[in-house]
Design brief:
Layout (H helix, E strand, L loop, with lengths): L14 E10 L14 E8 L2 E5 L2 E5 L3 E5 L5 E3 L8 E9 L16 E3 L3 H17 L4 H23 L2 H4 L2 H13 L6 H7 L4 H12 L3 H19 L4 H7 L5 H12 L3 H7 L5 E2 L2
Parallel strand pairs: 1-9
Antiparallel strand pairs: 1-7, 2-5, 2-7, 3-4, 3-6, 5-8
Helix pairs in contact: 1-2, 4-7, 7-10
């Protein structure tokens, strides 16, 4: 067996997560007014969260994030709603000093996440590692930077106009899927609603997005299924029906084909959470 040599790679951990959790409201209380020596990243999962930071007020809906900066006073504007839940992460980052920075992430302090499920999965990896003791300063730094990069990328995409991104018909198709994915729809259904030829809309969509309309429907359904599986109040058959699959067996096959694991395995993987009242 060849000798296994070690490669030393320079890696800065000046930016790293300190701790995190999932807040689930009991319908009482209000976010504490305070000023911390760490910044705090929040992603709203359900309900709405009303906060202030210094002289700015924020009304956060599901899928929206905010970064509350270290040293600034923040707190709640209204009592917690019964349906409110949000992920939170305290982190530290060193200011730019004498040492030459390779790259700086420019991240908006508030934005709406286009695909919250990707973001939620990063949170769950962090929380699972935190619970099991596998979390290190290096891994917490990497996971935090991935989250911040998601925020930056979403903000960049949002800054582009719809006309620059794709043809109007593709946006109409995606809008229809978003509104009707839980129904038994297919390409012919969408084409009929748009009074267009199925082959034509399929060709334009594939040329623009690089995948079929059927895959777009399944991507939207599986994205919703992941959220429902994590919330853990429906069985697999109920999740399938809620997401537009009449056949739970077919749902399992599609889910595994798109994620690499069964719905049950996905739920089990994400069941470890650090849940508290913040």
């Amino acid at each position: 067996m060849a000798r296994n040599e070690m490669l030393e790679i320079p890696f800065s951990v000046s930016t790293y997560a300190v701790n995190g959790g999932l807040f689930i409201s009991s319908g009482v209380g209000v976010h504490e007014t305070r000023s911390l020596d760490t910044s705090e990243l929040i992603l709203v999962r359900t309900g709405t969260l009303d906060l202030f930071e210094e002289d700015h007020n924020h009304h956060l809906e599901p899928g929206e994030t905010i970064i509350l900066r270290a040293g600034r006073t923040h707190g709640g504007l209204a009592p917690y709603q019964p349906d409110l839940s949000f992920y939170w992460l305290h982190f530290q980052h060193s200011p730019r000093g004498r040492r030459r920075e390779v790259e700086t992430l420019t991240v908006p302090t508030s934005t709406s996440i286009r695909d919250p499920q990707r973001f939620i999965e990063l949170f769950h990896i962090y929380l699972d590692d935190q619970e099991t003791g596998r979390l290190t300063r290096h891994s917490s730094s990497l996971l935090l930077l991935l989250m911040l990069n998601e925020i930056r990328d979403d903000a960049t995409r949002e800054a582009q106009t719809s006309e620059e991104r794709c043809p109007t018909i593709v946006l109409r198709i995606e809008s229809y899927i978003a509104a009707h994915y839980h129904e038994p729809i297919r390409t012919a259904t969408i084409a009929a609603q748009m009074k267009n030829n199925p082959d034509y809309i399929e060709r334009v969509f594939h040329e623009t997005r690089g995948y079929s309309i059927t895959r777009a429907i399944n991507r939207r359904r599986i994205r919703d299924a992941k959220t429902l599986l994590i919330q853990n109040y429906m069985n697999i058959e109920e999740v399938a029906l809620s997401c537009g699959y009449q056949d739970a067996g077919y749902f399992r096959r599609v889910f595994k084909g798109m994620t690499g694991m069964t719905p049950y395995a996905f739920r089990k993987k994400h069941c470890h959470l650090h849940i508290n009242s913040h």
